[in-house]
C-alpha cells in the first residue's frame, strides 16, 4: 500500500522541490538557519505530492487504457481516495505556506490554481506544458516571497521554468511514442539549454573580468557547475536519440537535473549550497530505479 502511494506521488522527484524552494529562499536573501524555510519546504512538499496524486486521479481513465500498471487502474489505490488525499494535501500546503511560512497569499494561491489547472487540462491541451513550467516558477517565487519577491531572483525563476517546459515537451514525446512535430522537439532542446547559456553569459560578463583583473579564481566555480549541467544535458540528449523506451529514461535524467539548474541559480550567493545541489542528480537517478520519476 505504501509503495502505491509513493508511486502516485512520484516521490523520487521530491528533492527537486526542496532545491527549488531553497534556491528561491537563498536568492531572496534568506538565511538557511531561519525556521521559516522548514515550513516552506514542508509546504512545497505537500503541494507537489498533492499535485502528483491529483495528476493520476485526473488521468485515471487514460491510464486504464494505456498505463494499467499505475496504482489507480491497478486497483491498489481507490480513485475517490486519491482525489480526497490530493486535495487535502493541496489545502494543507497552502495553509502552511501562507500562515507558517509567511509566503505571499497571491503567489501561493496562483501556484495551487496552476497545479489544479495542469492536472485537469494537460491531456487535452498541449499548451499545458507552459503551465507546468509556471508551477515551478511560482514554487520558487513562493519561497522567495517570504523575504522579498521583487529582487533579482525573478530571472532564475523564469530560467527554471523554461527548463521544466523543455523537459515536459520531451515527456510528451515519450507519451506519444516519439510522434512529436519537429518544431516541438527543437523548442524543447532550446529551452533545456537556456540555463547553461545564461550562466555562461554571466561568467563571461562578470567572473572572467574578476579572474583576469583581480586574480580571483573563486569566480571559476560557477563555470564548473555550468560544465556539469552541460555534460548531464548532453548525456540525456544522447539517451533521448535512441527513441522508444529510452525517451522515458531521458525524461528521468532531465528531472534529476533540476537541482543543477538550481545550483546555477544560487552559485553567486552560496557556493556550498550550489555544490550541495550538484551532487543530487546521480542520487536521484538511483532513487528512480525504485520509484519511477514519470
Question: Would you give an account of this structure?
Answer:
The protein has 294 residues and is mainly α. It has a single domain (2-288), classed as Tetracycline Repressor, domain 2, CATH 1.10.357. 75% of the residues lie in helices and 0% in strands. It is built from 14 helices and no strands. The chain is globular and about 50 Å long.
Spatial extent as radius of gyration: 19 Å
Order of helix and strand elements from N to C terminus: HHHHHHHHHHHHHH
Superfamily at the CATH H level? UbiA prenyltransferase
- Determine the CATH topology: Tetracycline Repressor, domain 2
Corresponding CATH architecture: Orthogonal Bundle
Number of DSSP strands? 0
CATH class: Mainly Alpha
Largest sheet: none
Number of domains: 1
**Could you say which structural class the secondary elements and strand pairing correspond to?**
mainly alpha
Distance between the termini: 19 Å
By oligomeric state, this entry counts as single chain
β-strand amount: under 5%
| Mean pLDDT, all residues | 88
Number of helices: 14
Helix content: over 70%
Low-pLDDT segments, ≥5 res: none
The global form is globular
Amino acid at each position: 500500500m505504501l509503495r502505491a502511494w509513493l508511486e502516485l506521488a512520484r516521490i523520487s522527484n521530491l528533492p527537486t522541490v526542496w532545491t527549488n524552494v531553497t534556491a528561491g529562499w537563498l536568492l531572496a536573501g534568506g538565511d538557511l538557519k531561519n525556521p521559516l524555510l522548514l515550513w516552506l519546504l514542508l509546504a512545497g512538499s505537500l503541494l507537489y505530492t498533492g499535485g502528483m496524486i491529483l495528476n493520476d486521479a485526473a488521468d485515471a481513465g487514460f491510464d486504464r487504457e494505456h498505463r494499467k500498471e499505475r496504482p489507480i487502474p491497478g486497483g491498489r489505490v481507490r480513485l475517490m481516495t486519491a482525489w480526497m488525499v490530493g486535495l487535502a494535501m493541496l489545502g494543507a500546503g497552502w495553509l502552511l505556506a501562507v500562515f507558517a511560512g509567511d509566503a505571499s497569499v497571491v503567489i501561493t494561491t496562483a501556484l495551487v490554481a496552476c497545479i489544479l489547472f495542469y492536472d485537469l487540462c494537460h491531456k487535452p491541451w498541449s499548451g499545458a506544458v507552459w503551465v507546468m513550467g509556471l508551477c515551478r516558477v511560482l514554487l520558487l517565487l513562493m519561497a522567495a516571497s517570504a523575504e522579498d519577491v521583487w529582487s533579482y531572483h525573478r530571472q532564475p525563476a523564469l530560467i527554471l521554468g523554461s527548463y521544466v517546459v523543455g523537459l515536459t515537451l520531451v515527456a510528451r514525446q515519450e507519451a506519444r511514442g516519439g510522434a512529436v512535430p519537429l518544431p516541438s522537439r527543437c523548442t524543447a532542446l532550446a529551452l533545456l539549454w537556456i540555463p547553461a547559456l545564461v550562466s555562461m553569459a554571466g561568467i563571461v560578463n562578470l567572473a572572467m573580468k574578476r579572474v583576469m583583473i583581480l586574480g580571483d579564481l573563486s569566480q571559476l566555480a560557477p563555470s564548473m557547475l555550468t560544465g556539469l549541467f552541460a555534460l548531464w544535458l548532453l548525456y540525456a540528449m544522447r539517451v533521448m536519440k535512441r527513441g522508444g523506451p529510452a525517451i522515458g529514461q531521458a525524461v528521468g535524467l532531465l528531472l534529476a537535473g533540476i537541482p543543477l539548474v538550481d545550483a546555477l541559480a544560487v552559485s553567486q550567493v552560496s557556493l556550498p549550497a550550489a555544490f550541495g545541489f550538484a551532487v543530487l542528480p546521480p542520487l536521484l537517478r538511483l532513487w528512480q530505479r525504485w520509484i519511477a520519476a514519470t
